[in-house]
Amino acid sequence: MRHCILLHVTWTTRDRLPTITLASAEFLAGLLPRIAHQERGEILGMGIVETHIHIAIRIHPATSLPRLLQRLKGASASLHRKQFDRPLRWAKGYNVDSVGSRALHILLDYVTTQHLHHPDQAIAGWPD
Predict the structure, then answer these.
(1) 16 backbone φψ class: left, alpha, beta (φ>0; ψ -120 to 50)
(2) How many Å apart are CA 38 and CA 54, to the nearest integer?
(3) Residue 32 CA to chain centroid, in angstroms?
(4) 6 — alpha (psi -120 to 50), left (phi > 0) or beta?
(5) 13 forms bridges with which residues in the sheet?
(6) Between 20 and 30 A from 76 (CA), which of 23, 32, 69, 119?
(7) pTM higher than 0.90, yes or no?
(8) pLDDT digits (tens, 9 = 90+) for 9-39
């Protein structure tokens, strides 16, 4: 049986401070899909600006959403500190919306063009 639970997930930096740099965005783009895979998820699209992240993700029905988000946010903050010797702090909580499969293309376009929706928060060089 094929499952297709599609979600739009967003979370912000603590106090919405512009702390996501180009190096941080590249780091997150490599790390977050690996964590999602470990939790039976697949990131289909990602948008990152200085203050927040949007992801389009497909998850398995048995995936625990709170655990997935705790791992995405917690591991990225912890590993970022180790790799860059500076913190990447996330605000508490996150936003999740379910998306129908017919609207996936709209979601992917929205998520991957965050730099156009928030030009004042766009990260120079991201996406390349």
Answers:
(1) left
(2) 19
(3) 7
(4) beta
(5) 90
(6) 119
(7) yes
(8) 999 999 999 999 999 999 999 999 999 999 9
Kindly state the helix (H) or strand (E) to which residue 11 belongs, with its residue range.
strand 5-12
Measured CA to CA, the distance from residue 31 to residue 58 in angstroms comes to 16
DSSP 58-118: EE-TT--HHHHHHHHHHHHHHHHHHHHSS--PBPS--EEEEE-GGGHHHHHHHHHTHHHH-
Token digits of residue 107: 């979601």
pLDDT of residue 85: 87
pLDDT, tens only, 36-94:
999 999 999 999 999 999 999 999 999 999 999 999 999 999 999 999 988 899 999 99
> Are 45 and 55 in contact, with CB atoms under 8 Å apart?
yes
Q: What is the per-residue pLDDT for 125?
A: 93
Nearest alpha-carbon partner for 73 in 23, 98, 122, 36: 36
Q: What is the Cα–Cα distance from 9 to 33, expressed in whole angstroms?
A: 13
